[in-house]
Amino acid sequence: MTTTIQRVLYAVTLPVLLIAGWWFATANSTSFFWPPLSTIVDVFPETWFEGRFGADVVPSIVRLLVGYAIALVIGIAVGLAVGSSRVLRETAEPVLEFLRAIPPPVLVPVIMLFAGIGDGMKVSVIAFGCVWPILLNTVEGVRGVDEVLSDTARTYGLGTATRVRTLTLRAASPQIMAGARQALSVGIILMVISEMFAASNGLGFTTVQFQRSFAIPEMWTGIILLGLIGVVLATIFRLVERRVLSWYLGLRAAQRKG
What we know:
By secondary structure, the protein is mostly helical. It has one domain: MetI-like fold, CATH 1.10.3720.10. It contains eleven helices and no strands. Helix 2 crosses helix 10, helix 3 packs parallel to helix 6 and helix 8 runs antiparallel to helix 10.
């Protein structure tokens, strides 16, 4: 219990200090672009919870989750194939490195030509940006699987599907989860960027509209809401990661004690 309390204190101390510093630093602010934090807090509920939550926040999160899920499926599947085959890896690596180097926002006009200006374009941008950390980490994770274990699995006559499920995915899961964690942060950024192009709703669209109409306190609420969504998603991901990697975390803890 004491350890849990200490972790909670460590987690909240810096955010509390930053918020307190922001509050007191802007308490008497008369700047149009840097309003008091108290003003931002006052307008936050009416800005987002009186109609905009369902119209803007929910669509943004749905696009993010759909694009992220597509990236997970493609990244893990392709990563398994590339990581398991030396020939395929040598053949695909130049193309993968080329595509990875292209910033996803640059492709927004191109994706718009094929996917239109609807949700498909936004989901495609998110998926394209999120897939690379997952794919490349999966490749490295698969390449790092112990060859002795792989040979033993073949010797015992385990089929390819069983071998992938029980050995390869399990052994590569720490690196796959590391890539998935990076991809989640990338996805939030691309969610906002994709909604700045030919959009009619979403967090990114609405926050930019506030800025263009000089509704500065409301603009700041959008930025804060994005940060809060990031914290919530990161917390959920951490819980899922602990469950998926419980065997790995337990092994590391045992090694430290030993």
